[in-house]
Specification:
single chain, mainly alpha, 7 helices
Length: 224
């Protein structure tokens, strides 16, 4: 059996379409996407993504619950609703992007935040996800009469939450894996509804089953 085309040490056991040879399972697991440009058609990439999303989804659910409590304490249900809409739009946008990285979600949220800033600075080279967020939040903001100061505060907190969950890896996808895995595992009906909205022309339709309050939470737990 030939040696792994990546490490040249262990035996190659999987066919790697990106490297045109056999790769060992360890190199495949450690370097896929990050240092190996895996095509979306790779069967090992698909199986691994599904597994990693399930694992990340459980952790994401726990940290998401804590974050929503913080948002509720800050600005009530209106604050939680802002991030809830961002989550739904992120799922809709990235659901089929196996090569997507958390930096794309962060750049999008930064672009959206700038659009709500009191000081408007012309932006060149707007990220694609940022453009999508701006378009959708323009409709959502007008409908809900959102206060710019609350939106910017929620988005600042959201950026910190995403960065904390994502970690320090330059090509991390932990946040997106967590979000996608959480929605697909805990709210499969919502995942299906959001999938149907892809390319629907920018109309926000947030499924009612995707609760933005994970569980009943008292705004002032100490008073109970």
């Amino acid at each position: 059996m030939s040696k792994c085309v990546h490490c040249q040490q262990r035996k190659g056991k999987r066919s790697c379409p990106a490297l045109n040879g056999m790769i060992c399972s360890q190199c495949c697991g450690e370097h896929r996407i990050t240092t190996i440009s895996c095509p979306a058609s790779c069967v090992f990439l698909e199986v691994n993504d599904d597994y990693q999303q399930k694992r990340a989804g459980g952790r994401f659910e726990l940290e998401r619950r804590t974050f929503y409590r913080e948002l509720l304490d800050y600005g009530g249900e209106r604050a939680t609703e802002i991030f809830y809409v961002f989550e739904a739009l992120a799922f809709r946008y990235f659901q089929d992007r196996r090569d997507a990285q958390d930096i794309e979600a962060l750049e999008g949220i930064q672009s959206l935040r700038r659009s709500f800033s009191l000081i408007q600075i012309p932006e060149t080279g707007m990220p694609a996800f940022g453009e999508e967020l701006r378009k959708e939040f323009k409709v959502f903001g007008e409908r809900q009469k959102l206060e710019p100061t609350m939106v910017t505060e929620v988005l600042d907190r959201a950026q910190a939450f995403i960065q904390g969950f994502s970690g320090t890896g330059l090509r991390s996808n932990r946040f997106l894996h967590g979000l996608l895995g959480y929605v697909r595992e805990r709210h499969p009906d919502v995942a299906e509804q959001l999938a149907r909205q892809t390319g629907a022309g920018g109309r926000i339709v947030i499924p009612s089953g995707f609760d933005y309050l994970p569980e009943p939470v008292s705004p002032n737990p100490s008073s109970s």
